């Protein structure tokens, strides 16, 4: 007698049943990832803003504010564009990364044009990479 039709066949590579789509990231994972990235970005903004001098309360507040803002924007982009097309998701993450890196460069000794150029280059690179990542994983 053959196997019952409702018994899923296991995929040896991933341990998922065949025909079952990938689950989306849970809100806890998104929250943890955005908090971690926000913390790292905020610390880095605070360090770059010091410019080698001593740490002041202004550096701490700027880093804290930028970290919270980056974490909120990352979670917002991830949540809002979760069901979007790969191109829309890639543009969202490319713009977020480009603006973040341009701002980080502007906090250093870079000019406005060099900060804008760096943000545009990094954002375009991340956008292309994100498009490839999201397009390769569409069903």
Characteristic key phrases:
139 residues, mainly alpha, 68% helix, 0% strand
Please render the helix and strand layout as text.
Layout: H1 27-50, H2 57-80, H3 86-107, H4 112-136
Keywords: Membrane, Transmembrane, Transmembrane helix
Transmembrane segments: 29-48, 60-81, 87-105, 112-134
**Helical stretch tally:** 4
Query: How much strand?
Result: under 5%
Mass-distribution shape: flat
Largest sheet: none
The chain-level structural class is mainly alpha
The portion of residues assigned to helices is 55-70%
**What pattern of helices and strands is seen along the backbone?**
HHHH
The end-to-end distance, rounded to whole angstroms, is 33 Å
What is the mean predicted local confidence, pLDDT? Answer: 85
Radius of gyration: 20 Å
How many strands in all?
A: 0
- Which consecutive residue ranges, at least 5 long each, have pLDDT under 50? none
Summarize it.
This protein is mainly alpha-helical. It has helices at 27-50, 57-80, 86-107, 112-136.
